[in-house]
Amino acid sequence: MEIHWKDLEDIPEDERRSIEGRLDALASGHSDLIDVRLAAKRNRHHQHGAQEVRITCQARGTEIVAARTRPDVGAALDEALDAFEREVRRMRDRRSDRRIERVSGAPELGIVDRVFADEGYGFILTDAGDQVYFHRNAVHGGLEFGSLEEGQRVGLNIEGGEKGPQATTVVPPPLGAPSP
Predict the structure, then answer these.
(1) What is the spatial distance between Cα 33 and Cα 166, in angstroms, rounded to a whole number?
(2) Does any domain span residue 54?
(3) Number of domain units in the chain
(4) How far from chain centre, in Å, is Cα 44?
(5) Domain limits at 129?
(6) N or C: which end of the chain has fewer CB within 10 A?
(7) Spatial separation of the C-alpha atoms in residues 157 and 61, rounded to whole Å
């Protein structure tokens, strides 16, 4: 997970480290948070110079946004971070509920269709004929994103993304998996 700060120069370094620690703890043990942006701007809709802090996160299959406006940028940042943590937990709860509903079993099978190594993503063509997006962070199980080749057989778990199906994990195919 990458963390980007914008227009928050007034936040002391020790507070930045504390916030980054909270974000790291939230990401620990998970690979769903990809890119977190923390930004502040003066909100012209509020009198007395209120500050809006917005946290935007690219997460696997969705985008999470939390924003708060307060006269003090530190208070706005703290409240936005609290709201962001709640939204991440809600997202994970919804995903775990869907996973419980699914019948457990072998992952779906497919072949790597295209890889855009410089951009960190690619597409897999499933045995059912669907084209599925995957991000480099979804590659696990001993596979390395940089060494994936077009036509390579893989196993994958799929869920709905904003723009269509997305692989949540891409792994080597199970032993004895049929050839495409």
Answers:
(1) 15
(2) yes
(3) 2
(4) 31
(5) 108-171
(6) C
(7) 13
